[in-house]
Amino acid sequence: MPLSKAAADPPPPGEGPLSLNDTPRPRRFLPSGPLRGRIRVPGDKSISHRALMLGALAVGETRASGLLEGEDVLATAAAMRAMGATIEREANGTWSIHGVGVGGLLQPGQALDMGNSGTSTRLLMGLIASHGITAAFTGDASLSKRPMGRVIEPLSRMGASFTPSPGGTLPLMMEGLCPAVPIEYRLPVASAQVKSAVLLAGLNTPGVTTVIEPVPTRDHSERMLRGFGAELEVEELGGERIILIHGEAELRPQTIEVPGDPSSAAFFLVAASLVEGSDLVIENVGLNPTRAGLVEVLRQMGASIEELDAREVGGEPVADLRVRHAALTGIEVDPAVAPNMIDEFPVLFVAAALAQGRTVTRGLEELRVKESDRIAAMAAALTAAGARVEETEDGLIVDGTGGDPLPGTGGDVAIVTHLDHRIAMSMAVAGLTSRAGVDIDDTRPIGTSFPDFESLLDGCRA
Ligand SMILES: O=C(O)C1=C[C@@H](OP(=O)(O)O)[C@@H](O)[C@H](O)C1
Ligand SMILES: C=C(OP(=O)(O)O)C(=O)O
């Protein structure tokens, strides 16, 4: 299957998903001098998706600054426009969203192209489930392999019907039901996307929809639903979180400042920790406790990460992070921290490959159903770059070099990124700490979450 819909001339920012064209863009990431100065990573991807979705359901104008303008978020913007919202990017970079009101989504005139984005797909399936409209979802080769049964199951219980491809994948057709049926749903997997899909379906469902989370996951949906005026309660009981949303809500438009994405900052935290002489400040990084697991784990490994000017931005804790080179030591990573850093494991594996001694990770089955099988992809990639890695069913065991550079690939082979932005960026970081450089088969997927990653990286190690 082609990477995505071909687009000879990508549309200007804010005008729909920037589809990948058909020519891979390989690059060798060379050994680097110290990373220094001050950088700012783009807006949080999870918050950006939700700002567009909730803004599109409020009556009146929501304004969002700092929104991530990556392809995944642009796919959400295009879908919300196709269902009736008016969404514009102003010249100063602020986004203006005029919503249709809860219950007011229109039937899209064509298939919703979700590109590479699991979050767009699963959250929008939730929104549509309680509207009386039908929609078709398509995606790229990576997204078309990812499991959708995990949202189809609860949303079917609420009354929506689905015709997925064999195996419960995209492309799929769905038909929502209005009024939908409120449910009480215990999450069988630790997934903020599944939780959010049910809560978003609950927005336009009469009565109370309940989600029980045995393992807490990122809570941006809960924070933002409340911020937009939904009636939502959270109870903690014996380590579980019980979330209740009162349906047929009216959302009030908001002014949102999107904090920097900790999942994007992660690449620079690891790079500056590994490259000798580095002293880098990453400004405005979101440190929501359900997202900040990597900072804690790197500190346990000996990293030097200081939080400066801790403050609140858009209802989320934020700080500037000063990270300096430090010798890292391998650890056993507590599996309980996994949901708080689920997207950061690929780059943590790179840190482990350069640490002193052994790092053991477990409980990471969910990594196998991301944009790629991130356990297998990182085992193959790090092995190709000369690291010592053992793949287990639910994690990796990595024996680090103790700070010596990895041999690298040096043109012999190229790392296969499998249309996965996080594999590409993680192995770019590995290249900085290698002898011969690391070759990546394709850097285009980076545009899904961090379009200016390469220019920021090249800029701070000049
Ligand atoms: O809700 C979200 O915004 C996300 C939840 C996580 O996925 P899962 O819910 O599948 O764990 C994460 O991997 C993804 O990048 C964004
Ligand atoms: C898993 C990710 O995103 P999504 O599920 O939205 O494709 C990610 O960004 O690492």
Give the structure's gist in a few sentences.
The protein has 12 helices and 21 strands. It has helices spanning 45-57, 71-82, 118-129, 149-157, 192-203, 220-227, 262-274, 293-300, 345-354, 374-384, 421-432, 453-460, and strands at residues 27-29, 36-40, 61-65, 86-89, 95-98, 112-113, 134-138, 161-165, 169-175, 184-186, 208-213, 232-237, 240-246, 255-257, 279-286, 304-313, 316-324, 358-360, 388-392, 395-399, 438-440.
List keywords for this structure.
462 residues, alpha+beta, UDP-n-acetylglucosamine1-carboxyvinyl-transferase, Chain, 4-stranded mixed sheet, 21 strands, 28% helix, 23% strand, globular, disordered N terminus, binds shikimate-3-phosphate, binds phosphoenolpyruvate
What does it look like?
- By secondary structure, the chain is an alpha+beta fold.
- The protein has two domains: 27-43 and 259-460, UDP-n-acetylglucosamine1-carboxyvinyl-transferase, Chain (Alpha-beta prism), CATH 3.65.10; 45-256, Enolpyruvate transferase domain (UDP-n-acetylglucosamine1-carboxyvinyl-transferase, Chain, Alpha-beta prism).
- It is built from twelve helices and 21 strands.
- It has helices at 45-57, 71-82, 118-129, 149-157, 192-203, 220-227, 262-274, 293-300, 345-354, 374-384, 421-432, 453-460; strands at 27-29, 36-40, 61-65, 86-89, 95-98, 112-113, 134-138, 161-165, 169-175, 184-186, 208-213, 232-237, 240-246, 255-257, 279-286, 304-313, 316-324, 358-360, 388-392, 395-399, 438-440.
- The strands form six sheets. The protein has a four-stranded mixed beta sheet.
- Strand 8 (161-165) and strand 9 (169-175) form a beta hairpin.
- Helix 9 packs parallel to helix 10 (374-384).
- The longest helix is centred in the N-terminal third of the chain and has 13 residues, at 45-57.
- It is globular and about 60 Å long.
- Shikimate-3-phosphate (S3P) is lined by residues 46, 119, 191-193, 196, 218, 342-343, 366.
- The site of shikimate-3-phosphate has 10 residues, from helix 5.
